[in-house]
Amino acid sequence: MKTPLVDNLQYANFSPRIFEQMRAGGVDAVHVTIAYHESFREMVLNLERWNRWFEDHPDLIFKGTTAADIILAQESDRTAIFFGFQNPSPIEDDIGLVEICHQLGIRFMQLTYNNQSLLASGCYEEDDTGLTRMGRAVVAEMNRVGMVIDMSHSGERSTLEAIDHSTRPIAITHANPHWWHAALRNKSDRVLKALTATGGMLGFSVYPHHLADGSECSLEGFCAMIAEAAARYGAENLGIGTDLCQDQPDSIVEWMRVGRWTKDIDYGEGSAGQAGFPRMPVWFNDNRDFGNIRSGLIATGMAGDEIDGIMGRNWYRFYEQGFGPNKRM
Q1: Where in the sequence is the domain holding 119, given as residue range(s)?
Q2: Quick one: average pLDDT of 162-174?
Q3: 200 pLDDT exceeds 50?
Q4: pLDDT tens per residue, range 275-324
Q5: Contact 201, 318 (CB under 8 A)
Q6: CATH assignment of the domain containing 147
Q7: CB-CB contact of 84 with 31 (8 Å)
Q8: Which long-range contacts (CB under 8 A, 24 or more apart) does 42-48 make?
Q9: Positive or negative, the Cα torsion across 27, 14, 323, 210?
Q10: What's the average model confidence in pLDDT over 35-51?
Q11: What's the sign of the alpha-carbon dihedral 40, 81, 323, 192?
């Protein structure tokens, strides 16, 4: 198998144009968000939309559910689309829906978005109380069926408890180290050491609110951060999760941050008064720009096999290990 190119988080306003850009950029697999605050039924409507895209554009994309689908994507010159939730709202208060969602093709689920959920605390809560009783039960059920626990938007204690309670490696699909940029969403050295020591994966984000210097972040600075993370935690535990929100209208930011829990605008990760999407750094605008990241990593002097791992081989290995049922349980 040639080195795969995997982006382990996008929430773009998907369209045939973006699917064509995926192919132009040689992207073999993309983990796409299909739920933020949706109920189970609303999430199913999103699956219906994706099914129509799969039907209408079979030469560009197809639904992925196993690591082997990345190989199929390479062999057929298409992009495998993997599904995930950025909030556990689609399972509502029913643990049985974890397995149903896995049967529908969901392979990642965050235990929280920015707020407290039925499962854990989000990174914007002042008091992070850790995993709830239901959270511990859902982690065990996700381990059993082969759905990856994602703690990208979760608080420190909740993330550490998820790492400790899970019998399988978890993921932080789209975030950066807090020591590089002190955003609430970025992860502490303590969390990243615990994550990678247990075989978990960190996906580096290019979303400007997660970047040092924001939209002005340089490619050199971003890649130097990745090289430092590889030195600290091991390159085998690192990948890309861009959090690309291409072509989304600014109204979607309000949906992401406000959802149904408040009537007021929650500016969240943006500065006061900034409710829209920030401008992307000049070196990454869409799926055709992954080559810039590879070139930037080469310029840091990282080894070729480490770069191949970060660009996709590590996610491929993680998919192999994480998507099937837990045979030990």
Answers
A1: 6-322
A2: 98
A3: yes
A4: 678 899 999 999 999 999 999 999 999 999 999 999 999 999 999 999 98
A5: yes
A6: 3.20.20.140
A7: yes
A8: 42/90, 43/85, 43/90, 43/101, 44/104, 47/83, 47/104, 47/105
A9: positive
A10: 96
A11: negative
